[in-house]
């Protein structure tokens, strides 16, 4: 159940009530691909840094360890000891980006596992079954993520098939939720809008999937090769045709600037590997832009990563010490950077929610975007 609490222009401030707790939006979902955040970050850490939603990956958990084993262990929440919401993506993106050799048919996709090369078939029903075994709070529909620059004819056919797949996902999800041994009988299904950079295909698809009256909708197939301007244009055109009284999720995006811009266009769910991936390479986020702690200028820097930051790293350690750990290839350095970055993202969203509530989002966005460029100008 989603409640729209406040709008400020097209920016939305809402809350989604789920069986695993209420999600305050706009929200950034912390990406834990294989039921863990890369960088030695535990679920206890996630609570300490203000994480609302953890995101795990259907494809990766299916090919390694296996969703059936996780179901036997009581589902993903119990398996990883996390009692807040979890969103699982459908596996579609990985099937199309990682699998290499694959064959798409109306029934679904046959592909080879990137781990052991075995043949796997996944279609809408299989994706729903895997996600039902995992017992996530929110399951994503199985779709094809066509390349951003794909030919129009290809995109039209792909989107039509994704629409047919969505109807099958909805039907299968209803069936699975009614079974007596289902891990989470209250699992929610989000549909995904596709259409590459073709605004008219996107709009038509948004209208069609909205008719299915699902609990939420995502905009997929962006941040996969198009420019930021093209992405913002697609959102400008498409989001008004998705239900305003449902959560709207921009998949796989993005930088702090991307998030600030997308909130302004009506998006209220985000996920991205940037904070953890960049953290593992010593790149840390601040209000004034991103810094690389490997740089020599931080060797004797006794300040925290970000002045005033209340994350467990900034409250206790200096840039010089974190840099030393990174240079010494000590895992603790990587862990500290990931923790700080996730805290930064989670609390950026908190500030965004506050600005929308106070009706000053436009000014807030402008000020934050300007601040983010500070280090670039030096």
Automatic annotation (TrEMBL):
Q: Under which pathway is this protein filed?
A: tRNA modification; tRNA-queuosine biosynthesis
Q: Where does substrate bind?
A: 89-93, 143, 194, 221
UniProtKB keywords: Glycosyltransferase, Metal-binding, Queuosine biosynthesis, Transferase, tRNA processing, Zinc
The GO molecular function terms of this record are:
glycosyltransferase activity
Cofactor, how bound (note): Binds 1 zinc ion per subunit.
Q: Which residues are responsible for catalysis? A: 89, 271
What SUPFAM superfamilies would the database entry show? tRNA-guanine transglycosylase
Task: Cite a single Pfam family from the UniProt record.
Answer: TGT
**Which cofactors are named for this entry?**
Zn(2+)
Q: Which reaction does it catalyse?
A: 7-aminomethyl-7-carbaguanine + guanosine(34) in tRNA = 7-aminomethyl-7-carbaguanosine(34) in tRNA + guanine
The tRNA-guanine(15) transglycosylase-like domain, residue ranges: 10-370
Q: Which residues cross the membrane?
A: none
Using the UniProt annotation, give all residue ranges assigned to the region (RNA binding).
Answer: 252-258
Residues bound to Zn(2+): 309, 311, 314, 340
Highest taxon of source: Bacteria
Q: What is its EC number?
A: 2.4.2.29
Q: Which family does it belong to?
A: Belongs to the queuine tRNA-ribosyltransferase family.
Quote the function comment for this protein: Catalyzes the base-exchange of a guanine (G) residue with the queuine precursor 7-aminomethyl-7-deazaguanine (PreQ1) at position 34 (anticodon wobble position) in tRNAs with GU(N) anticodons (tRNA-Asp, -Asn, -His and -Tyr). Catalysis occurs through a double-displacement mechanism. The nucleophile active site attacks the C1' of nucleotide 34 to detach the guanine base from the RNA, forming a covalent enzyme-RNA intermediate. The proton acceptor active site deprotonates the incoming PreQ1, allowing a nucleophilic attack on the C1' of the ribose to form the product.
NCBIfam families referenced in this protein's UniProt entry, alphabetically:
Q_tRNA_tgt, tgt_general
Q: How does it assemble?
A: Homodimer. Within each dimer, one monomer is responsible for RNA recognition and catalysis, while the other monomer binds to the replacement base PreQ1.
* Protein name per Swiss-Prot or TrEMBL: Queuine tRNA-ribosyltransferase
Provenance organism: Lachnospira intestinalis
Lineage of the organism: Bacteria, Bacillati, Bacillota, Clostridia, Lachnospirales
The gene that this protein is the product of is tgt
């Amino acid at each position: 159940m989603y409640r729209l609490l406040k709008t400020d222009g097209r920016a939305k401030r809402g809350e989604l009530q789920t069986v695993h707790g209420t999600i305050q939006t706009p929200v950034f979902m912390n990406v834990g691909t294989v039921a863990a955040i890369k960088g030695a970050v535990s679920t206890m850490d996630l609570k300490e840094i203000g994480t609302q939603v953890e995101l795990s990956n259907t494809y990766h958990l299916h090919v390694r360890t296996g969703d059936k084993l996780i179901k036997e262990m009581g589902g993903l929440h119990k398996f990883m000891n996390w009692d807040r919401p979890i969103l699982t993506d459908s596996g579609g993106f990985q099937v199309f980006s990682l699998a290499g050799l694959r064959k798409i048919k109306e029934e679904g996709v046959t592909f080879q596992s990137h781990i052991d090369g075995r043949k796997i078939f996944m279609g809408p029903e299989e994706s729903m079954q895997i996600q039902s075994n995992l017992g996530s709070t929110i399951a994503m529909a199985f779709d094809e993520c066509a390349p951003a620059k794909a030919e129009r004819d290809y995109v039209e056919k792909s989107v039509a098939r994704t629409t047919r797949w969505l109807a099958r996902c909805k039907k299968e999800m209803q069936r699975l939720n009614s079974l007596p041994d289902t891990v989470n009988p209250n699992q929610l299904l989000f549909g995904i809008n596709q259409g590459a950079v073709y605004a008219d295909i996107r709009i038509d698809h948004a209208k069609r999937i909205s008719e299915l009256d699902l609990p939420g909708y995502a905009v997929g197939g962006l941040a996969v090769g198009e420019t930021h301007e093209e992405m913002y244009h697609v959102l400008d055109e498409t989001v008004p045709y998705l239900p305003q009284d449902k959560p709207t999720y921009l998949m796989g995006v993005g930088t702090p600037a991307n998030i600030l811009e997308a909130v302004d266009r009506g998006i209220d769910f985000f996920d991205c590997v940037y904070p953890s991936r960049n953290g593992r390479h010593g790149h840390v986020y601040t209000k004034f832009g991103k810094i690389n702690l490997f740089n020599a200028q931080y060797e004797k820097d006794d300040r925290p990563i970000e002045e005033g930051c209340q994350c467990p790293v900034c409250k206790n350690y200096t840039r010089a010490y974190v840099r030393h750990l990174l240079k010494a290839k000590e895992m603790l350095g990587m862990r500290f950077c990931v923790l700080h970055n996730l805290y930064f993202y989670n609390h950026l969203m908190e500030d965004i929610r506050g600005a929308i509530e106070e009706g000053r989002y436009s000014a807030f966005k402008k000020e934050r975007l300007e601040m983010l460029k500070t280090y670039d100008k030096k």
